[in-house]
Each structure stands twice: as C-alpha cells, then as structure tokens.
Amino acid sequence: GVVFQEPTVDRELTAMENMVVHGLIHGLSRRDVERRARELLEFVGLEKFANTQVKRFSGGMVRRLEIARALINVPEVLFLDEPTTGLDPQSRAKVWDVIRELKRQGVTIFLTTHYMDEAEKLCDRIAVIDHGVIVAEGAPDELKRVVGGDLVYIEFEGEPAKLQARLSEYGEMRVVGQTLVLKVEDAPSLLPELLKVVESVGVRVRSVRYSRPSLDDVFLYLTGRSLRDEEADWREAVRMRIRARMR
C-alpha cells in the first residue's frame, strides 16, 4: 500500500465511495470491499463519517482516510510519504496511533519524514539520507552513539578560524553557518574552561549551549546541515518542479 504526500482521494466522493472504488480496482468483490471498507473506517476512527463527502474533511481526517484506503487490499508492506506534514498536533497524534497499531499487527512500514521526533517514536530502524545518499542507518539509540558524548553549540560573529584553532584540542567540531558544534565527553564540567578560551580568542559570541545528542543532532553531525536547511532545500525543489510544469 502507498500513501503519497499530497492527497489523492476524490474530494467529491464520500469516504465509503473512495474506499469501494479503490477496492474494486484491486479486484475485490463488492461484498468483500464493503465489509473491508467498514472495518478500516472504524479502525482509523472515521466510521461516523463514512457517508460524508471528503471535501468536508479536515486535513487529519483526509490523511487517516488515505491510510485506510491503502490498506483495502491487506498489504504486507505500507509506504507512507510524510504522513503528518501540515497536520495539527491532535491530528498528528491520531495518525501516530494508527501507525503504531499497524506495526503491532505486523505490517512492515516505510516512513519518510522531516520530523526526527516522529522517526524516533515510530521507527525501529532509521536511515539518514543526505542528497539522495544513505549516510547512516540503525536503531535510534545506535545512531545517537554515532555522535557520542555531548554537543556544545557556540554561536559567533565573524570568521571561525581562530575559534577552531583554539578549540580543536577539545574534540571533533563542525561549523554550520555561524555556529560551531563541538563534540566533548562532559559538557557541564568543561563549559567554564571553554568559555575562557572563547573569551581569550576575542571572538564575539552570541550564545553558548550544550545538549545530549538527539536525532536532530545526528542529522546535523552527519550532514553538516540542520533539518531546517534540509526542509527549506526540499520545499524549494518542490516549488521549482511546480514552476516547470506551469511553463
């Protein structure tokens, strides 16, 4: 089964009609498809809206309907392309509940997402993709161990060369825009010393913070870019494709 990022249900049809049409396309009998459709609409919490036109649905309801429709032929594998993008927190949580239940039932799910908290909560294994290439793969905890230790973020003004030269002895580092990311073993105890070094260099610092590695940190560490940059690049690519089609 497949759920695309953009809605593909017929908004003029009811939820039940969308389900039945999709089931008949897959070769199910009318009797079987109606029974299966009722079961799936109940499964995603839309049984009360079976005879409502989809154009009256919220974004979250449409997404749950699309998941139900993708399950009409009882697939063993389900592909979900950014299933919660643009949804409000309540709708997002409901979609998460559906995905968790499908996992419990043994359905294999391939999920693409820009939300690392979503990946961490729903996925057994995660592949980090940068410009179409898988740069790391593993369970969430395994990926966090790739970073290891703590990460210190130093936001500065000017050129980073002097700062890099003085801090290189403390651990691995990356510069992302105007932020230096330093990997250390014990940030709380080391932070006072790092601040003295930064002050001695004479570089103007806007902020200093540290954190235990999260999956967002893993993405930043592996790609040298934040997820915000990644999503901005992706959205710009989508806009370019749309412009090309309109020419």
Characterization of this structure:
The strands form 3 sheets. Strands 7-8-6-9 form a 4-stranded antiparallel sheet, sandwiched between helices. A 3-stranded parallel sheet has the order 1-2-3, with helices on one face. It is elongated. The chain has 247 residues and is an alpha/beta fold. It contains 10 helices and 9 strands. The two termini are 33 Å apart. Helices cover 48% and strands 19% of the residues. The protein folds into 2 domains: 2-124, P-loop containing nucleotide triphosphate hydrolases (Rossmann fold); 149-212, YebC, transcriptional regulation domain (Alpha-Beta Plaits).
Secondary-structure blueprint of this entry?
Layout: E1 2-3, H1 15-25, H2 30-43, H3 59-70, E2 77-81, H4 89-104, E3 108-112, H5 116-122, E4 126-130, E5 133-138, H6 140-147, E6 150-156, H7 161-167, E7 173-176, E8 179-184, H8 187-201, E9 205-211, H9 215-223, H10 227-246
CATH architecture of the largest domain: 3-Layer(aba) Sandwich
Return the average pLDDT rounded to an integer: 86
Helix content: 40-55%
**What would the CATH topology of the largest domain be?**
Rossmann fold
User: What's the tally of helices?
Assistant: 10
What is the molecular shape? elongated
What is the fourth-level CATH superfamily of the largest domain? P-loop containing nucleotide triphosphate hydrolases
Provide the succession of SSEs.
Answer: EHHHEHEHEEHEHEEHEHH
Strand content: 15-25%
Cα-atom radius of gyration:
23 Å
